[in-house]
Amino acid sequence: MSTDVTAKSPAPAPPGGTGSASGSGLLHLVLDGLRRNMRQYGMLLALGLIVALFAVWTDGDLLLPRNVSNLVLQNSYILILAIGMMLVIIAGHIDLSVGSLTAFVGAFAAVLTVQHDLPWPVAVVLCLLAGAVAGAAQGFFIAYLGIPSFIVTLAGMLVFRGVTEILLEGQTLGPFPGGLQKMGNGFLPEVGPETNYHNITLLLGFAMVAFVILQELRDRKRQQEFALDVVPFNLFLLKLVAIAAALLTVTLLLASYKGAPIILLILGALVVGYGYLMRNSVFGRHIYAIGGNLPAAKLSGVKDKKVTFLVFLNMGVLAALAGLAIAARLNAASPKAGLNYELEAIASAFIGGASMSGGVGTVLGAIIGGLVLGVLNNGMNLLSVGTDWQQVIKGLALLAAVGFDVWNKRKSGS
């Protein structure tokens, strides 16, 4: 008994089959890369979406050169605090004293320069040293005496606020010397031929784009050498294009107004320096280690007490720098300065990808989180949204960011 078998001819390829398959495969690759790296790119995409929405809602006022410059000046001190707070949270701790410490440093600077006529560069050095001493004192109680950071920094918040009021005697003190004022309000000088743009700002912007691209390429090559997972090349290329476009846009906007603010250069140096510290140094790896798994870090020989002490000392220095920046911008020291700055810094770190359990976060993430809050504040002010609703919206944004982090970790674990 025989069975007839009829051979089936292959189905005809759809028109443009190869191109369609290639395009579909590329789209699938990009979407898969985004899903696997959602933690890294989620807030960056959210920042872009927020900027786009407010640009439309404000009829373009958000992206006016003058407003972009003000956005940098208004949020620089929060971004400085966010960098230090990110390190503290990665190490598994919290710091509630930074707002009061910024107020204390501003008051200390006013007393030195206004009341005692001390040269402002000397006053700046002394203020940074005062911040280091304050941070070191808190770090000692936390690291070597084992008192929880929440309790120590809560006590520090009360102490520094009280000392601020004692120094200022309940009054506002100012103005500051011109050199110190430029730290918070100054811009780079104009040099070179007469153009429609600020020449130095353009050069710095192009240099920053080149530096970021080279750094990204170097990091990708290093990951490949160690056989680590890297994002698909198409997604990596899209990331480079997006970063370059964003940096060039901000550069052109700043260059078409007064140029780059001086505080932006300070902030840029901090981002580059601390980014390198956390990615490439032994100290940075130790911070991640004690925050991620303290017992294992101890068994590996990490000096956890020393690392914790230095993390809080560093937070004190950055809080002092932020205090100088905000005092210089306001051109006066006030007993009420720095209110809720610690909450803004903590929110920036968590929105930027920090984990409540420690061991996770990046310096760039802290900057992105701070910018999300800064754009929200600026955009809502342009739309004349009341301060009551602003608090509600920012609270929901923080809750959404932490909820997204929890959801993403559960999804990754499953």
What are the SSEs and their pairings?
Elements: H1 17-36, H2 38-57, H3 65-90, H4 98-115, H5 120-143, H6 149-168, H7 178-185, H8 199-225, H9 233-255, H10 262-280, H11 282-292, H12 294-299, H13 304-330, H14 341-351, H15 363-382, H16 387-413
Describe the structure.
The protein has helices spanning 17-36, 38-57, 65-90, 98-115, 120-143, 149-168, 178-185, 199-225, 233-255, 262-280, 282-292, 294-299, 304-330, 341-351, 363-382, 387-413. Helix 4 (98-115) packs across helix 13 (304-330). The chain has 16 helices and no strands. The protein is mostly helical and 414 residues long.
State the main characteristics:
disordered N terminus, single chain, globular
Could you give a quick summary of the protein structure above?
It contains 16 helices and no strands. The protein is mostly helical and 414 residues long.
Helical content, roughly? Answer: over 70%
User: What ranges have pLDDT less than 50 throughout 5 or more consecutive residues?
Assistant: 1-22
Biggest pleated sheet: none
How many DSSP helices? 16
Give the amount of beta strand, in percent.
under 5%
- Overall geometry: globular
Task: Give me the count of strands.
Answer: 0
Compressed to H and E, one letter per element, the order equals HHHHHHHHHHHHHHHH
Mean pLDDT: 86
Oligomer: single chain
The gyration radius over C-alpha positions equals 25 Å
Tell me the span between the first and last alpha carbons. Answer: 54 Å
Structural class: mainly alpha
